[in-house]
Amino acid sequence: MAFCRMERPVDPHQLELLAPARDADIGIEAVNHGADAVYIGGPAFGARAAACNDIADIARLVAHAHRFNARVFATLNTILADDELEPARRQIWQLYEAGVDALIIQDMGLLQLDLPPIQLHASTQCDIRTPEKARFLQDVGLSQLVLARELDLREIAAIRAATDPATTLEFFVHGALCVAYSGQCYISHAHTGRSANRGDCSQACRLPYQVTDMEGRIVAHDKHVLSMKDNNQSRNLEALVDAGIRSFKIEGRYKDMGYVKNITAHYRVLLDEILERRPEFARASSGRTSFSFTPDPNQNFNREFTDYFVEGRKADIGAFDTPKNPGLPIGHVVKVADKWLEVRVDAADLVLNNGDGLCYYTLQKELAGLAINRAEKAGEGLWRVFPKDPIAGFKDLRAGTPVNRNRDMNWTRLLARPSSERRIAVWLRFGETADGFALTLTDEDGHTATVSAPHAKEAAKDAAKSEPMLREQLGKLGGTPFAATGIALELSASWFLPPSFLNALRRDAVSALETARARAYERPPRARPIEPPVVYPEDTLSYLANVANSKARDFYLRHGVRVVAAAYEGHAETGEVSLMITRHCVRYSLSLCPKQAKGVTGVQGTVRAAPLTLVNGSEKLTLRFDCKRCEMHVLGKLKPAVARQTAPLTFYRSRPSAAGDNAATGT
């Protein structure tokens, strides 16, 4: 048995599809459906507190991903208390030993620890919006940067121009949108003690609010004015490529298997179309994927879609009526009886199923849903639906009501079954040796394995059938990660070879090739920080920098910062402060922006960016508008009940010893 290892060239123009994994099984299916990389939470310290996984499961995912040269990134992207640094360090070593390729982090204190040579990526929680910050994070040793979701193409291109081509820029292309700049929202902690920066957001942005002006007049009633539609950059992928994005990230570490399969497949198809037309770019992993279904993002939970700010500010980015899934329009109600309703569907071939979910808007624009217990065809394009709950409980359900479907059981069952195949192309060469025969496999990445076995050379009785039989037996690669692209037979005569011999030779060759691929796999290297340490773009950091431990503070002092304030979770900020900073503007979305009124006769000058108030029950928040930066600040205070709780993070307050003698103490 012989192995020939070929190094895989580093290609700065690789396009990476990065998929989420709530657990290892979902991560494996993400790889099977075309992901070049998967990100998953470890045992602790991830920004999705309820999506943790043990090391053994992550190692299982790693083993599967590496078969296809796909990578696994572990999220350790919360801010940490001093007493959590050592447990975090130990976890990082465990993740490294499990084969994880990179670590996604927010807390700069981790850069001060004794870490393994694992690649580091900057989380979206790092709030990367400027070329200066992106360049700084690159220069301190972060190899991949997750840019803020709010950036437009021009801003992305500016960051690309300011950073090294070897630094990968990553961007969210699909999924739920946080309305705040990531890492810049403290409403959850201020109101409930649950910190978004600690992976435990209470999602105040999805609540309904009454919006009032300075005179107390109602501007909007019970609207979800901080709730965004879901991100969908399907139409902008090539523009993002041209702006410099190389990693295309799908949100969803809380999402189920069907979501990850479908959305990963959808973007795999779109990226492959770009790769087919643009030979200057390459795929970031091995193999090609085929699907037993047609990917469709509309089939999964969504709040309708927006491309957010990528092509500039738009007014329709909000899911103001409901944060729920409104589904797809399918028809309208034609009759309501005491136990059933009849629905006229728009498409004659549309089928309603037992277990489907339907929904409609009430007269108050509230989304109401019903689950189908039984569906019966009542005519051409007409369905009689028996809901699981009594008809009398459905408000405003009447003839003429438009109906959507937000759960299709046929689709759910389709995605519950095996729905993809991912195969690596191999070329087979079968020839003779002195005492038998040899089979060589060469894969699409250039890895080669050869196996040989002794066997008598006995002439085949039917030479015409010998070659087709050989090709059939050698090409049986089902159940392996490989697919035969070509089979070369280098034989001096037609020999009799039993299927058992050929099957054993093929199995050994496949095993040898897998071993060769595993030996050749190299994890991405850790970037070295520039020395002497580069200077941070600012010399003063407020609570917005999320500095929560002594190592993080020391990190910023090393990089020229003179004043470092405690993270908001340290409870040092007890007065009214910005609890959220966002590019979303309620005034703009409600057509109350002074810039919108500019040049409009009779309106210009009458609309001013005065503060607004959000009210939900006893909770009140103030909206202030920074028109120069086109940003909105949501102001509020730490609730007394939360302030009385023990702060989840105790900020390290002692004065630094040497380098920090001229720096102010953290407050």
Automatic annotation (TrEMBL):
Read off the PROSITE patterns from this record. Answer: PEPTIDASE_U32
Q: Where do the Peptidase U32 collagenase domain residues begin and end?
A: 403-517
Q: What is this protein called?
A: Probable collagenase
Q: Write down the species.
A: Thiobacillus denitrificans (strain ATCC 25259 / T1)
